[in-house]
Amino acid sequence: MIGTILLATFAPGFALFGPVGWSELLIILFLVLLFFGPRRLPELAEALGKSIARFKKASQDMKNEIQSEEKKKPDLTEGKDKQG
Asked: Residue 62, exposed/middle/buried by CB under 10 A (0-12, 13-18, 19+)?
């Protein structure tokens, strides 16, 4: 429900399409093959794979950094016992 609201809010044109099925995916792949040709397709796939790997590594690094900062943060509930 919330995802649908966010999708409709941030990308109003995208909400009209709905999920992509196998037939749509095959049409997209055919158009990519037609546009780029069979010789450039491996290069494009390699570049896409490297980009996805970099994105995953960056998101994992960010997650680890946030978790390490949370561990460094002092626990404020301990101070209340000492003051009171």
From this structure: exposed
DSSP character for 38? T
Gap between the Cα atoms of 80 and 24, Å rounded: 59
What does residue 45 show for φ and ψ, rounded to 5 degrees? -65, -40
**pTM here?**
0.52
* 7 touches 15 (CB < 8 A): yes
In tens, the pLDDT along 3-17 reads 454 445 555 555 567
Sign of CA dihedral 54, 59, 60, 62: positive
Whether the CB-CB separation of 7 and 14 falls below 8 Å is answered with: yes
